[in-house]
Amino acid sequence: MVIAIRIDIVGGSLGGLSAALSLKRLDRTLDVVVHEKYNAIGYNHEGRRCGEGYEIEPDWNHWQPTERSIFNHIQQIETIVGKKTYRAHQPPGTFYMLNRQEFICQLARDAEGLDVEINTGDKIHSVDELDGEYIVDASGCPSTIKKSLGLHQGIVGSTYQQTIEGCNWFTPHVIKVIFFDASGYYWVFPRDPKKREINLGLGIVSGHHQNLKQMLEDFKSYHQIEGTVNYVTGGLIPAGLQRPLRHRNILFVGDAGVGTFPLLGAGIYRALLSGEIAAKCLVRHRPEQYPYKIYQAFIKWEVLGKTFLHMSNVLGHIGKHALFAFYHAYLDVWYSSH
Ligand SMILES: Cc1cc2nc3c(=O)[nH]c(=O)nc-3n(C[C@H](O)[C@H](O)[C@H](O)COP(=O)(O)OP(=O)(O)OC[C@H]3O[C@@H](n4cnc5c(N)ncnc54)[C@H](O)[C@@H]3O)c2cc1C
Hints:
Layout: E1 6-10, H1 14-26, E2 31-35, E3 53-55, E4 70-73, E5 76-81, E6 84-89, E7 95-98, H2 100-113, E8 117-119, E9 134-137, H3 144-149, E10 156-165, E11 174-180, E12 184-190, E13 198-204, H4 212-223, E14 228-238, E15 246-247, E16 250-252, H5 267-283, H6 290-318, H7 320-336
Helix pairs in contact: 1-2, 1-5, 6-7
The structure holds flavin-adenine dinucleotide.
């Protein structure tokens, strides 16, 4: 009798479901079990935690959201620093405002279609509860598993956001990013066009002491942004790689290991891609290759993002003019290459 190899995945969101789906796509004989602490996949607290902007590579067809999982197709990104606005046009089919809850459900349905076992209401406190040959930790930030093992995470920022319905700042198909003088930015994302709904938020990597809620309220009143706030959330944003990426037979994916790109987010893309990379290493029984493969995929963005953060911190202390001059120089290069 052949005993199937079992892989336990902690967390049933983007990173966990990407790993589960990729494992089963590569080897149907694997026994893949996803443990999700909430009673529902997607439609839980984590399901609406995020701003939901999702940019993908044009040829990344297997992670395309269905129409049901899309609020808005993004055609233009505007980045504003001081009085200057940078505009980049997006190729069709590469940037979406996700209905993230639906997207997670879409991934879960696909995974169940490939016989992945998804256990909800199943909170894992320690890896000792799991008997799989390999474990994928996709429990987000802060990672429960890293905490239970006494492992630390890297640089973590924070965010606060509101979803505002009937909003006078709603512009379909356009994302706005507005930099301010404290290593962070505001964003305006168009959500449901029928409700003229936006997601307005800010993220900050330094200056944790700042009152983000008050900053957002000040921003709204300065720009006279009006509408009904129907959803408020916030949380931690892991900026860049959250080493270690592997510990014994455990691989850390998504926010638990790979985090977001310190400059512009992309946590969704990074969670999906790292889940896929973890799966490829595990089907080959080469977990030790995972950190190296992750470096190959993300090191360029890691260096770029960390340099950006470091410079922002230093120049932020010198003053707003120095910081904005740096942002302009950076964005001139960035936008001329896109
Ligand atoms: C406010 C905010 C706005 C953001 N905006 C964007 C954006 O616009 N675009 C973008 O690309 N990224 C954005 N991000 C980042 C993005 O949300 C994350 O990078 C992404 O969700 C990471 O996915 P993940 O699967 O690793 O973790 P998560 O989505 O955090 O999922 C972790 C899962 O693990 C489960 N879990 C946790 N602990 C346990 C346990 N002990 N046992 C079992 N299950 C457990 C949780 O319930 C959850 O389902 C944002 C983040 C925040 C906080």
